């Protein structure tokens, strides 16, 4: 096993993939929550319950998972010194975009919290396809390294 991580590298990689799963689960859930959330009246009991659920998903699952995926991913990148490789640069661009998508979900949550509903249900359902498509390409880049 090469690199400064030595044999620990496989543990870091396992941790990376485990938190990728948590992150993706959260990213799939959030816009779906938004769709159901938007169906209830602003200020209603149901509205407050959705705000609470979204807040917990953000604080307990999404934010910590994203941070850990980044920390472990960067450790793996320095360990393997992949900076000059096309698959890694392409993966990096996509994970930055995915992190931006995460940022968008947080921003949208804050709007819902204020009683705003800027997007339609159809638009939210379409946006919900983004993380799945991005994850499929990211995994192909990371595993096959074309
Ligand atoms: C957030 C920034 C990320 C960075 C910097 C990063 C970096 C890396 C690096 C360098 C490796 C290769 C480890 C090695 O074998 O030497 C790796 C493996 C992997 N990454 Fe990431 N990653 C990130 C996010 C993600 C995301 C969001 C996904 C999935 C949606 C993902 C899925 C994977 C998978 C499945 C592997 C295992 C590949 C294999 O061993 O065959 N990564 N990551």
UniProtKB/TrEMBL annotation:
Q: What domain of life is recorded for the organism?
A: Bacteria
Subcellular location, record wording: Cell membrane
Under Pfam families, the record lists: UPF0093 (PF03653)
Q: Tell me what this protein is called.
A: Protoporphyrinogen IX oxidase
Recall the taxonomic lineage recorded for the source organism: Bacteria, Pseudomonadati, Pseudomonadota, Alphaproteobacteria, Sphingomonadales
User: Which cofactor names does the annotation list?
Assistant: heme b
Function description: Catalyzes the oxidation of protoporphyrinogen IX to protoporphyrin IX.
What note does UniProt attach to the cofactor annotation? Binds 1 heme b (iron(II)-protoporphyrin IX) group per subunit.
Which amino acids does the record list as binding heme? 16, 91
Family note: Belongs to the HemJ family.
Which coarse location class describes where this protein primarily resides?
A: membrane
Any transmembrane segments, and where? 6-29, 60-78, 84-105, 126-144
The protein's organism comes out as Sphingopyxis jiangsuensis
What's the Enzyme Commission number for this chain? 1.3.99.-
User: Which chemical reaction does it catalyze?
Assistant: protoporphyrinogen IX + 3 A = protoporphyrin IX + 3 AH2
Which of the seven top EC classes does this enzyme belong to? Answer: oxidoreductase
| Topology class, membrane | Multi-pass membrane protein
Q: In which pathway does it act?
A: Porphyrin-containing compound metabolism; protoporphyrin-IX biosynthesis; protoporphyrin-IX from protoporphyrinogen-IX: step 1/1
